[in-house]
Amino acid sequence: xxxxxxxxxxxxxxxxxxxxxxxxxxxxxxxxxxxxxxxxxxxxxxxxxxxxxxxxxxxxxxxxxxxxxxxxxxxxxxxxxxxxxxxxxxxxxxx
Length: 95
Description:
Helices cover 0% and strands 69% of the residues. The termini are close together. It has an eight-stranded antiparallel beta barrel. It is mostly beta strands. The chain has no helices and eight strands. The chain has one domain: Lipocalin (Beta Barrel), CATH 2.40.128.
Protein backbone atom coordinates (compact mmCIF):
# COMPACT_ATOMS: atom_id res chain seq x y z
CA UNK A 1 0.00 0.00 0.00
CA UNK A 2 1.21 3.51 -0.85
CA UNK A 3 -0.15 6.54 1.02
CA UNK A 4 0.40 10.16 -0.05
CA UNK A 5 -1.15 12.38 2.65
CA UNK A 6 0.36 15.73 1.63
CA UNK A 7 -0.84 15.86 -1.95
CA UNK A 8 -2.29 18.89 -3.75
CA UNK A 9 -5.32 18.85 -6.01
CA UNK A 10 -6.12 21.44 -8.68
CA UNK A 11 -9.76 21.36 -9.79
CA UNK A 12 -10.86 23.01 -13.03
CA UNK A 13 -14.54 23.67 -13.67
CA UNK A 14 -15.99 23.54 -17.18
CA UNK A 15 -18.13 26.59 -16.44
CA UNK A 16 -15.44 28.76 -14.80
CA UNK A 17 -12.14 30.34 -15.75
CA UNK A 18 -10.58 29.73 -12.35
CA UNK A 19 -9.12 26.72 -10.61
CA UNK A 20 -9.41 25.60 -6.98
CA UNK A 21 -6.34 24.32 -5.11
CA UNK A 22 -6.66 22.24 -2.00
CA UNK A 23 -4.91 19.56 0.00
CA UNK A 24 -5.86 15.94 -0.49
CA UNK A 25 -4.69 12.44 0.37
CA UNK A 26 -4.22 9.58 -2.10
CA UNK A 27 -3.92 5.89 -1.25
CA UNK A 28 -3.08 3.05 -3.62
CA UNK A 29 -3.83 -0.48 -2.38
CA UNK A 30 -3.32 -3.01 -5.17
CA UNK A 31 -5.71 -2.03 -7.95
CA UNK A 32 -7.77 0.23 -5.62
CA UNK A 33 -7.31 4.00 -5.34
CA UNK A 34 -8.83 6.31 -2.70
CA UNK A 35 -8.71 10.11 -3.00
CA UNK A 36 -9.97 12.14 -0.04
CA UNK A 37 -10.30 15.87 0.58
CA UNK A 38 -12.44 17.84 3.03
CA UNK A 39 -15.27 15.36 3.77
CA UNK A 40 -15.32 13.88 0.25
CA UNK A 41 -14.00 10.41 -0.58
CA UNK A 42 -13.61 9.01 -4.09
CA UNK A 43 -12.91 5.27 -4.41
CA UNK A 44 -12.20 3.25 -7.50
CA UNK A 45 -10.53 0.29 -9.15
CA UNK A 46 -8.03 0.13 -11.95
CA UNK A 47 -9.50 -0.32 -15.43
CA UNK A 48 -6.02 -0.78 -16.90
CA UNK A 49 -2.48 -0.09 -15.75
CA UNK A 50 -2.36 3.54 -14.61
CA UNK A 51 -6.08 4.15 -15.26
CA UNK A 52 -8.85 4.28 -12.63
CA UNK A 53 -12.59 4.88 -12.59
CA UNK A 54 -13.78 6.37 -9.28
CA UNK A 55 -17.06 7.18 -7.55
CA UNK A 56 -18.09 9.21 -4.53
CA UNK A 57 -21.28 8.81 -2.52
CA UNK A 58 -21.68 12.28 -0.96
CA UNK A 59 -21.63 14.28 -3.11
CA UNK A 60 -22.65 11.80 -5.78
CA UNK A 61 -19.84 11.85 -8.31
CA UNK A 62 -17.88 9.95 -10.92
CA UNK A 63 -14.32 10.51 -12.08
CA UNK A 64 -11.36 9.10 -13.91
CA UNK A 65 -7.67 9.39 -13.08
CA UNK A 66 -4.59 8.48 -15.09
CA UNK A 67 -0.95 8.14 -14.00
CA UNK A 68 2.21 7.38 -15.91
CA UNK A 69 4.15 4.61 -14.10
CA UNK A 70 5.83 6.04 -10.99
CA UNK A 71 4.71 9.54 -12.05
CA UNK A 72 4.13 12.32 -9.54
CA UNK A 73 0.85 13.47 -11.16
CA UNK A 74 -2.64 12.03 -11.59
CA UNK A 75 -4.94 13.71 -14.13
CA UNK A 76 -8.52 13.09 -15.18
CA UNK A 77 -12.14 14.10 -15.57
CA UNK A 78 -14.83 14.46 -12.87
CA UNK A 79 -18.55 15.18 -12.60
CA UNK A 80 -20.65 15.66 -9.48
CA UNK A 81 -23.92 17.36 -8.60
CA UNK A 82 -24.40 18.73 -12.13
CA UNK A 83 -20.88 20.18 -12.37
CA UNK A 84 -17.99 18.78 -14.38
CA UNK A 85 -14.37 19.51 -15.15
CA UNK A 86 -10.82 18.24 -14.96
CA UNK A 87 -8.59 17.59 -11.97
CA UNK A 88 -4.87 17.19 -11.46
CA UNK A 89 -3.26 15.82 -8.32
CA UNK A 90 0.41 16.26 -7.46
CA UNK A 91 1.40 13.46 -5.11
CA UNK A 92 3.18 14.45 -1.94
CA UNK A 93 5.84 12.36 -0.23
CA UNK A 94 4.90 8.74 0.34
CA UNK A 95 4.30 7.74 3.96
